[in-house]
Amino acid sequence: MTQNSFSSRFWRLIAVVLLPLVGCEKTGCGDGPVPMGQPVQLQFSYVVGDDALPFHLDSTYLSASDDLVRIRHLKYYLTRVRFQRRDSSYWISPRLPALVQLGRCDSVILGLVPAGDYVSVAFDIGLDSATNFSTDQGYDLAPVHEMFWAWNTGYKFLLLEGEWLGSTPSSGIEYHIGRAPTLRTVRLPLPAGTTVAANASMPLTVRIAGRPMTIFGGPHVLQLRFPRNRNAQFDTSDALLVADNYAAMFTLMGVE
Amino acid sequence: MPAATRAKMARRGGRAAFAGLLGGLMLVTACHPDADLTDTPAPRGPAAYTPALPANLPQTIPSPTRNPLTREGVLLGRKLFYDVRLSGSNRISCATCHQPDRAFSDGTALTTAGASGRALLRHTPALQNLAWATTGLFWDGGATDLESLAFGPLTHPDEMAQNLAALETELGAVPEYAPLFEAAFPGQGISSVTVARGLAQFQRTLLTGNSAYDRWARHEPGTTLSADETAGLTFVRAKCGACHAGETFTDYGFHNNGLDSADAYTDDHEQLKWGRARITNLPEDKGKYRTPTLRNVALTAPYMHDGRLPTLEAVLDHYHDHVRASPTLDPAVVMIDGTPGIWMTLAEKRQILAFLHALTDTTFTRNPALRE
Lengths: 256, 372
Known about the structure:
The complex is a heterodimer. Helices cover 14% and strands 39% of the residues of chain A. By secondary structure, chain A is mostly beta strands. In chain A, strands 3, 4, 5, 6, 9, 12, 13, 14 and 17 form a 9-stranded mixed beta sheet that branches. In chain A, strands 1, 2, 7, 16 and 18 form a 5-stranded mixed beta sheet that branches. Chain A has a two-stranded antiparallel sheet with strand order 8-15. In chain A, strand 1 and strand 2 (53-54) form a beta hairpin. The longest helix of chain A is centred in the N-terminal third of the chain and has 25 residues, at 3-27. In chain A, 44% of the residues are buried. Chain B is an all-alpha fold. In chain B, strands 1-2 form a two-stranded antiparallel sheet. In chain B, helix 2 crosses helix 8 (192-204). Chain B starts with a helix and ends in a 7-residue tail after the last helix. The interface between A and B is large, with 70 and 65 residues.
């Protein structure tokens, strides 16, 4: 990412957040500000175990199949964040896909969510087919993030690389998951009374916990002694198991 | 998630924690802000450009809306195409293997000219009339467009072995590039994205359509084809035209032309020998490869996706004598009695060769606008 583009993105964000507020002032006409909304961010933290202790890359954990594993890299595309109201209508974020990277990038800033009461938040892990058609795209889709296949065009929706310590030397684990069949929707109920305020300047933070070890043992327990369970690519049958698992790794921690 | 599984997972995680492998606070960092979906490329920019197109070829160049053809983009792409800085070692350019004199191919079956010195697993394809190749690129169609394709050769350790972040830094330090990128892609900076888009634009201008055949087909004054050449044309249209179709002499499709029997489609190298099926995962696509154009075919030896056939004579011998049966063999290379192959007499082989040489376009290979 060049300095210029980062700077450009920074000011674009500022503009996105501030412009609607400026608009309120202009259109208030003495009746007070028009209710607009509140900046919202999704804040991810990664935990492991009953006690939800912090999860660390490069540390060793025991998987659901009693396999010792170490995750070196974990990143995924998060898209189409939706806040649903009680009447099933919803607000969808207009933002481009966000690349969430453990240890590097753990929050997704959504900008201004319209004021109102919301009952759930949902997002997709993955990209829609139109976005996934070509890989010369910018921002979090930029090729420098190395989240794409060059020989078979498309983005990796989720990348997990690590090691299985059940052999000497250890064996690599490589999940590069992508293509439409692996797109998964995560829907998390919000606490009762979750309200996005009108014209609040402080952002509302939706805290979400991710359990990376669930990727090895969510709905499907992966036996890592089998090579096919250590290497899943694209949308193969093994990759679909991984996708089901990563869709199950999130829980809502709170809203503040 | 089933409750039992959930409970088990919790237990596992708890044991991991007990193992004393955790500690400290999580590092929490904010993601970069993202742009709105409405953040389309800035409307300002260079004017659209359509190069002169031979009258017997398609009259429009389909470009992605995100990367319309402009003179500035093409000029940038040409400079990048010939620049060795695009490789990790700064010794290899696109033109190392895509040489203008050979219609942007390399004359080698499986080149070792890449960064590692290891032989590639597929033959360097010629680059010509790819503006109309909208059905997929690479021999197996794995790249959706020229923009997306670029990252393959740029980053592959056996090709240019470039780290894209390093490339952005390196090109950003070259003073002459800044105005070229700005002119081609205003406000978008020097990035691997604009590199790929510039390269794609230049490649869309690698247009060939001025061979002896073309001048004859356009009824230009003083142009003729010999009796052998016209007979060869008639044969090619009748017996080869199912795949080498129309004025582009390719249908840009994927076919199994009988190079191997089905037992050759092994899983080696991540199903590389599956051909098109490696991309589609469809058994009926095994052994299929993209139809190369016949244009400039006399300059692009050796032939086939792995360069196994050294000469045009060997290619004709293949179609006459060595087509191998398999479940995915294209019907176009099966005779009416079911025998694999295309029947041709010695005289017809001579005529076909004469015609294929009439497809050589030296105004293309010597065009200074396409050279360094």
